[in-house]
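note to self — DONT lose this again. spent like an hour looking for the file last time. sequence + predicted structure for the chain T wanted, 332 res
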Amino acid sequence: MADTKTFGQGDFQYHVVSDWDRLPDGWEYKEVAGVATDSKDRVYVFNRGEHPLIVLDRDGKFLNSWGEGTFQRAHGIWIGPDDMLYLSDDLDHTVCKYTPEGELVMMLGKSGEASDTGSDGMDYRTIKQPGPPFHYPTNVALASDGSMYISDGYGNCRIHKFSPEGELLFSWGEAGDGPGQFNLPHGICLDSAGNVFVADRENNRLQVFSPKGEFIEEWPDVIRPCQIYLDSDDNVFVAEVGKRVGLFPWMEPDPTSTGGRVSVYSRQRELLSRWGGGDDPAAPGDFFAPHDIWIDSEGSVYVGEVTWSAGGKKGLAPPGIPSLQKFVRTDR
């Protein structure tokens, strides 16, 4: 049932649906790295628990699961208009295409083999040169013609474009904080014109490129953005992890900065709505470590959180924090 408290502002106001998702007894997500819906608004939860791909209906009823024993670590998900799934496995250095039933159709990258960028593990500061696909790929988004744009992420500093058949067409990016440079390209999405939005996480910005990878502009009003989703009107939804948790070992938490939050912008960069970022990440409607975001056909917002790796394993996450929240628009 939707909570009575309203989150957001203007035309983007929501109720959170408490206890929305109903898993089988004894099951848990551990944490939700990715979430997406298909043409029937079935919800695919790409998580880091024992059942990495859990499928629910729009009301949260459990339908099925698959992928057990298949993935090294779930990271990103995209679902195309034909309901095919594109899943990025960062620790396996692969991005794979699956049917909705879990049949492998295509694998990009070599399983278990990272490209040579000279980096020391996931420390993006140690990247010596841009590399080919992949070195901890993070997310994937589809263009209208079925081509794939992939952000390649912790151990690389590139965006790769592949044909629908899996041929590498071109790549762009290098390490740094200038235009067209990245310090952890973590999320990716396209607008209706085919322009490419990249969540340049550790540079605290979004970068926008043409379909050919030409730099257009940067959007700086975000705090460590993890993922982006553009709705049918090109409104830009951003999941921001903030600077309190989910930090690399060399970073210090900043309690004066925002916590995890969701921001909504127009295509013209006007801030339309924002919620989260409070002092109680366990409260319904607030966030601990937002990692992925998706909008279904009814305008409902799904936010997946990496509650374990961002702090739960260190005892930083208060008990009771959900790894997946659903927000329903108040005007629906």
